[in-house]
Design goal:
Blueprint (H helix, E strand, L loop, with lengths): L8 H26 L5 H20 L3 H18 L7 H19 L10 H16 L41 H7 L6 E2 L11 H12 L8 H13 L6 E4 L2 H12 L6 E5 L4 H9 L3 E5 L9 H7 L4 E7 L11 H8 L7 E5 L24 E6 L12 E5 L1 H9 L8 H12 L1 H24 L3 E2 L6 E5 L4 H11 L1 E2 L1 E2 L9 E4 L3 H15 L2
Parallel strand pairs: 1-11, 3-4, 3-5, 5-6, 6-7
Antiparallel strand pairs: 2-8, 7-8, 9-10, 10-13, 12-13
Helix pairs in contact: 1-2, 1-4, 1-15, 2-3, 3-4, 3-5, 4-5, 4-15, 7-14, 8-14, 9-10, 11-12, 15-17
């Protein structure tokens, strides 16, 4: 059982402030990574933020969060006093531990369920290795270790920021790169999965449902509808739940498109599943050319729409480019479509757009009768492996859909997982914050490396590099990273990278830099 962040101001404040501290810590860790020797100011800043996070967690009685922060703080204290050597291995472990801390905060109300020894052992091992091993990133030789280091304390007031020295970008061998970053197996950055993994509340719900799978709860679909209605501030009658957004699209077209005479309008380089659904429904999918920035051709859609246009399908934010179309522009287009034409907006990743209200069509649901919004639990709620989606629409449309399908089409296990995810607001909030911060870092980092980066409002970034796409893809595999090829969309010169946690984002950029430096 979890406490909804939106109903618990204290918890909400803790999560928001903790994420803000982690964001500041990430900035300082990046300075440490780029410096030839660790600036004391960055060590002190991270220590102060970690200590504040520890105290905040203690006040909320989140013991595991407090203990992890305390362990990191002790290591930073030793580094500042020069009692241990600051190596690249130690930096890797510290960043990984902060990622674990991020996961604990995203599951704050359930953080006691975690075995934190798994998180602390790597830190302890790295300290031992740093005390006796060869230095990789070391303090400047001109800074001798004083005899009274044991009495040196980290300052409580942080001095003015001093620019750190950047390391020269020199390519290294694949073997050495993988060893330096501890990459032993492939890191998948192609599937857009949640970088925080699955919500602990969802995992607990699945286990509980498995234990009681002999019974059937008939009201779970209605309970989830009630929760979604509360979340979006709309009537329950406007919501249809199914095993996925594509399932709802299929049902909508079967009920509204006449096979053999009607058609559906969309645009080229779109989701392949739209081809399958329209083909199975017996209607033609007409694809219009995109603009150069991958934006939907709204003017052409209006021009080409006629009385035989059953629906217009738009994915927003776009897949595979991540382009975000302002909702106002879509609303204007909707008023110019034929009266019978449905405007179907696939918003499966709109939660990652910032600010979401500028991109979601939810605000126009009552004003546009033929609007249907498709949503998914897969990405933002961290249950990509569970088929669950829903649609928001006019009550008349939703009633028709409900009356035209078999009863109980969704597994109670899926419904229970969706309800648990919806109620676990702290996990959702942490996910969105992590994606938005990580997306900015990935975009800026790729641009600094000379890549062409397409603006994204999703949980992935589309780009190409100064070298052939096939070559970059292959070399990234050698470095331990799997990116997404876009061949299924008809695109051969671009790749996408899923936004990961801080550690994965950092190592991904380091790998691209290493390849382009050769």
């Amino acid at each position: 059982m979890t406490i909804e962040t939106q109903d618990d101001p204290t918890l909400q404040l803790f999560v928001e402030q903790s994420l803000e501290k982690l964001d500041q810590i990430e900035t300082e860790l990046m300075k440490l990574e780029k410096a030839s020797s660790p600036p004391e100011i960055s060590i002190a800043q991270i220590y102060a933020l970690t200590l504040a996070l520890k105290e905040s967690a203690s006040l909320q009685s989140y013991t595991n969060i407090s203990l992890i922060a305390d362990n990191i703080g002790k290591v930073l204290d030793k580094v500042f006093k020069k009692e241990i050597t600051f190596t690249s291995d130690l930096l890797n472990v510290i960043i990984d531990t902060f990622d674990n801390l991020n996961e604990l905060i995203s599951n704050a109300t359930l953080s006691a369920d975690y075995d934190i020894r798994i998180m602390t052992i790597p830190l302890e091992d790295a300290i031992k290795k740093s005390s006796s091993g060869t230095m990789i990133v070391k303090h400047k030789a001109e800074e001798p270790v004083s005899s009274n280091n044991e009495d040196k304390e980290i300052p409580t007031e942080i001095p003015t920021e001093i620019p750190s020295e950047r390391k020269k970008t020199v390519g290294t061998s694949v073997e050495k790169f993988r060893k330096n970053y501890g990459i032993t197996k492939e890191i998948d950055l192609s599937s857009n999965t949640n970088p925080l993994g699955a919500s602990k509340a969802v995992s607990n719900s699945i286990v509980e449902m498995a234990r009681n799978c002999c019974s059937l709860k008939n009201d779970m679909s209605e309970t989830l509808k009630f929760a979604l209605a509360k979340r979006h501030d709309i009537p329950e009658e406007c919501i249809v739940i199914d095993n996925g957004a594509v399932d709802i699209l299929d049902l909508v077209l079967r009920l509204n498109a006449m096979p053999g005479s009607d058609h559906v309008l969309s645009y080229e380089l779109g989701l392949p599943e739209y081809n399958s659904v329209t083909a199975l429904c017996g209607v033609e999918l007409l694809k219009l050319p995109r603009s150069r920035n991958f934006s939907p051709p709204l003017d052409q859609m209006v021009t080409n729409a006629n009385e035989n246009t059953a629906a217009v399908i738009i994915t927003n934010p776009d897949i595979p480019s991540g382009y975000g179309m302002p909702a106002e522009e879509l609303a204007t287009m909707a008023t110019l479509l034929p009266k019978r034409t449905l405007l179907i907006v696939d918003e499966r990743c709109v939660e990652f757009a910032w600010p979401e209200d500028d991109y979601s069509m939810l605000q126009f649901l009552e004003k546009i009768p033929n609007l249907i919004i498709l949503r998914s639990f897969s990405w933002s709620f961290g249950i990509h492996g569970i088929r669950l989606g829903y649609a928001l629409m006019n009550p008349e449309h939703s009633q028709l859909l409900e009356e035209s399908r078999l009863p109980h089409p969704i597994s109670p296990l899926n419904l229970g997982a969706g309800l648990a995810a919806l109620n676990h607001s702290e996990f959702y909030y942490s996910t969105i914050a992590l994606i938005i911060r990580g997306r900015e870092r990935i975009q800026n980092g790729l641009r600094e490396l000379g890549c062409t980066v397409y603006p994204s409002q999703s949980n992935f970034v589309m780009f190409n590099a100064p070298i052939p796409t096939s070559e970059l893809y292959s070399q990234m595999l050698d470095h331990g990273f799997k990116l997404k090829k876009l061949n299924e969309f008809g695109i051969t010169d671009l790749l996408t990278v899923s936004i990961g946690n801080n550690s994965r984002n950092r190592i991904f950029l380091a790998a691209v830099q290493n390849i382009l430096s050769e």
